[in-house]
Design a protein that fits this description.
- 2 copies of one chain form a homodimer.
- Chain A has 356 residues and is of the alpha+beta class.
- The first copy, chain A, has one domain: Malate/L-lactate/L-sulpholactate dehydrogenase, NADPH binding domain (Ribosomal Protein S8, Chain: A, domain 1, 2-Layer Sandwich), CATH 3.30.1370.60.
- Helix content of chain A is 38%, strand content 17%.
- Chain A has 11 helices and 12 strands.
- In chain A, a hairpin with a 7-residue loop joins strand 6 and strand 7.
- In chain A, helix 1 runs antiparallel to helix 2.
- At the A-B interface, strand 2, helix 4, strand 4, strand 6 and strand 7 of A face strand 2, helix 4, strand 4, strand 6 and strand 7 of B.
């Protein structure tokens, strides 16, 4: 969660959703599809993933206008077996492709026990946790992998940026406890965090980035002189590589040298790859028992004795749960810079400004 | 790979395998099962995973003699659907349980496209890569997760060691390139590396362990005064937690407070949990195309421009491949301390010593 600045306006999720939907409709996306995307993007903001919510709207619209994204995609299953499907997203918005893929995975896991659905010719789809969480409402575990949309990571010891921050998200339900949701990049910091530091005029801690001589890079304004560092050194490099092979290469999607930097390019399709796995808990054990075991573990972790100076133990997904609880009630804090960008977008598209 | 000391004897894999098989037969395991375990343990040594090969034999025998492990297990499928199975290992040797599980996953993935097989009431099974690699021979991708057999990791910010080094392994085939195989603990160092440092009288680098005041712990002889650190801080904590929930909790196996420290205990069953996923490449795309894409990526990574002082870019699995190539020809280097331990074991069991 980014702390709200004093000047931040709070906007209700329904307003955010309506604004996003009207923007996508204005550039030619059908009403139901625009609403689907808007719902997922607003959900990202409500969940505290503000780097992946309405913040991305101007870029998404720019890429649609640039012809990089297909506004009338024929999202379809290209290959299928009892426990898998390969979805061709037809270069549609990633949110539509991955909603389709997640629903297919959930449907198949109901009978097969587990299902793995890959997608190619997709696009940036927002936060990984959105899709990993979808199976949870069906008493399933969700696991999501993706190839990131810009290469900022070299091989360990290398300089050529052939890998992205390829994220993993895993979500599963507790009983009385909130779902446990891990959503992480395989780099120490996601690239969005570097951009946020630059916007705020702050230095980065050592360990986020390295320059091409191997020295720590801490000035975010010099980020193009270096690269992101993987978690755990060669281990994070290995994870980024393997997740990319599973989410990209296996699906016939872009990986390595074929990845398009979608921040720098408004005209080229990205052929983004992702995959979503749905695991039907009931196939393994009674759902209620599993949820109880999750609660016991979460509570054992939370009540652990703590290191000096540590206020509390965090469980993955807790921050997002707290953001959701707050924002459903109080709205989403919108920094003035973002409101200005959205006002400009509204003027450009000829739609009503957000919150008016 | 541990570099061979000058005094290290080299022993052929077939001798290692025969010795291990005779040891297990001597404590009551059937001939075919003893041979299966021996084959997998010798394979670990040949692959350069010497911390998980014959090195573990005295401990395995000790735990069998202590009654902690069932020598006549009825390894069986307890639950099953098209793309999943839950294996009850009946407290048998982990190698037998996970070989059974991997074969089941491969069989199911042939028709379902993907299959996920979990195991409970298993035991330590050696290196994760052994099982992740099994689907590769069938033109499949393997993914393996496990709950480690001793808790050395607290929640991030905590002191109670409720988590283990829960590893992940992913293996997939190239065409002319060796299979890409990632096999890693979710901690910066596996606990075995700490023990090796102690044996060698070396200090650990900062970042491996922390003491209970939050200071770096670098003396491996003081390892019981602290705990392992996860890769990427809270991210590695999240991975260890989620992998444990998938490999342990979901299968009804031990996780959190229920994990038994099998290094300190020769009598209590561990109820170890693992899972193996087999992904049939052919379901997604022609196998030859996939393998070619893997080769292209591997070569792009390998020929990357390098950081100053870096001799070469490593691809996960390359070290293991080099060890295998060398050891199939020249045998496995066995340090004198290990030979002495195995001689003592041979005398105790009344079997012929290794290499004689």
């Amino acid at each position: 969660m980014t702390p709200a600045t004093p000047a931040a306006q709070h906007i209700g999720a329904s307003h955010i959703e309506a604004f996003i939907a009207s923007a996508f409709q204005k550039v030619g996306i059908s009403v139901p599809e625009a609403q689907s995307i808007a719902q997922l993007m607003a959900r990202a903001d409500v969940n505290g993933s503000e780097g992946h919510g309405i913040f991305r709207l101007p870029q998404y619209i720019r890429r649609i206008k640039g012809g990089a994204v297909n506004i009338k995609p024929d999202i379809r299953i290209e290959r299928e077996a009892a426990a898998m499907a390969l979805v061709n997203g037809d270069n549609g918005m990633g949110h539509l492709v991955m909603k389709f893929a997640a629903e297919k995975a959930i449907e198949k896991a109901k009978t097969a026990g587990v299902a793995w659905v890959g997608a190619k010719w997709s696009n940036h789809a927002g936060p990984a946790s959105l899709y990993a969480s979808m199976p949870v409402a069906h008493n399933m575990i969700g696991l999501y992998l993706a190839v990131g949309n810009a290469n900022h990571l070299p091989a360990w010891g290398g300089l050529d940026m052939l890998l992205s921050t390829n994220p993993i998200a895993i979500a599963l339900p507790g009983e009385d406890e909130a779902p446990v949701i891990l959503d992480m990049a395989t780099t120490v910091a996601a690239y969005g965090k570097v951009k946020t530091k630059a916007q705020r005029g702050e230095m980065m801690p050592e360990g986020w980035m390295m320059d091409r001589q191997g020295n720590p890079l801490t000035d975010p304004n010099r980020s193009n002189e270096g690269f992101l560092l993987p978690i755990g050194g060669y281990k994070g490099y290995g994870l980024a590589l393997m997740f990319g092979l599973l989410a990209g290469t296996l699906n016939g999607a872009a990986m390595g040298r074929d990845v398009v930097d979608f921040n720098a390019d408004d005209t080229t399709p990205t052929n983004t790859g992702h995959c979503i796995v749905a695991i039907n808990i009931e196939a393994f054990q009674p759902v209620a028992e599993f949820k109880k075991s999750v609660d016991v573990l979460v509570r054992d972790l939370r009540k652990s004795e703590r290191l000096p100076g540590v206020d509390r133990i965090h469980i993955p997904g807790e921050g997002s749960h707290a953001a959701r609880t707050d924002r459903v009630k109080n709205g989403v804090p919108m920094p003035p810079s973002l409101m200005a960008a959205l006002d400009a977008l509204a003027a450009e598209l000829g739609i009503a400004p957000l919150g008016k």
